[in-house]
Amino acid sequence: MKGQRTERLVRIASRFMLGPSRHLSLTDLAQDFEVSKTVISDDMEIIHRAFSEEMLGVVDVDRGRSGGAYFVPRVGDELRRKWLGQIAETLSQPERVLPGGFVYYTDLIFDPRIASVLGLIMASNFSSLKPDTIMTSEVKGIPIAMFAAHALGVPLSICRFRNRPSDGPAVAVHFPTGAGDVRTMYMGTRQLGKSKRVLVVDDFMRGGSTVWGMLQMAREFGSEVVGVGVFIASEEPAKKAVPSYNALLTVSGSGDSLKIRVNR
């Protein structure tokens, strides 16, 4: 597959983008493109510099025995503020305000162009924690969580509110809601192993009861929750069921006074 350097750089960069956070062997790349590992290492520097300047991430190179390289998503602050600012502006449109202090965003998170951006930002916030899996709940948490899992190179585990025979044996967790009811959450026993590092991702948090249920689910599997990421969090109530979380956007007020701000 020997060719011009420009073509080789594009091909290698495409492999990084298709498999972020996954190992690419420098030896295999050298063989594929019929060049030396030294040339491939120089290519890594060029691609790393390009990704860094685009504020999309970095290329980490392991020069040990494994001789591998990884594209680690890491959205720059300026690009993050730009993307989230555009989304917040869209969500602030009067026609999106719903009764009860809610805002309509379903069309955005089910648009792959937007969900992929949100997943990339979410992954950037937690990449240093090196989770083994992403956990979310059906249904609207799935798109962002899936793209975050793709960016981090880990699988996605989904908590359901109805047990499905196709999931096989399942673990059930009961948790109270903000309204005082008790809901049940299920996860198939084959989805999540023991002693995993779990990143919980959800689309919206008001009181935090659904996320709290997922924390209990991880505990039932003997896994550790290393972080909680939320697309939108409501400012009220101030006290959540979850002690710590990272929200991309915060919504406050209601009706004509509803405001959405980008969090740092």
Spatial order of the strands forming the largest sheet = 7-6-10-11-12-13
Taken from the alpha-carbon principal axes, the silhouette is: globular
Number of strands: 13
- Report the C-alpha radius of gyration, rounded: 21 Å
How many helices? The count is: 8
- The number of domains is 2
Helix-strand category: alpha/beta
Strand content: 25-35%
Q: In angstroms, what separates the terminal alpha carbons?
A: 45 Å
What helical percentage do the residues reach?
Answer: 25-40%
Main sheet summary: 6 strands, mixed
What does the average pLDDT come to? 91
| Helix and strand run | HEHHEEHEEHHEHEEEEHEEE
Kindly provide the name of the CATH class of the largest domain: Alpha Beta
What would you say this structure looks like, in words?
GO terms for molecular function: DNA binding; glycosyltransferase activity. InterPro entries: PRTase-like, PRTase_dom, Pur/Pyrimidine_PRTase, PuR_N, WH-like_DNA-bd_sf, WH_DNA-bd_sf. This is PRPP-binding protein, adenine/guanine phosphoribosyltransferase. Keywords: Glycosyltransferase, Transferase. Residues 124-243 form the Phosphoribosyltransferase domain. The longest helix has 17 residues, at 37-53. This protein has helices at 5-18, 26-33, 37-53, 77-91, 106-109, 112-126, 142-152, 209-220; strands at residues 24-25, 57-61, 68-73, 97-98, 102-103, 133-137, 156-159, 170-176, 182-188, 197-205, 224-234, 246-252, 259-262. Helix 2 (26-33) packs across helix 3 (37-53), helix 4 crosses helix 6 and helix 6 (112-126) packs across helix 7. The chain is α/β, with parallel strands linked by helices and 264 residues long. The strands form four sheets. Strands 7-6-10-11-12-13 form a six-stranded mixed beta sheet, sandwiched between helices. A three-stranded antiparallel beta sheet has the order 1-3-2. A two-stranded antiparallel ribbon has the order 4-5. It has two domains: 5-73, Arc Repressor Mutant, subunit A, CATH 1.10.10.10; 77-262, Rossmann fold (3-Layer(aba) Sandwich). The mean pLDDT is 91.
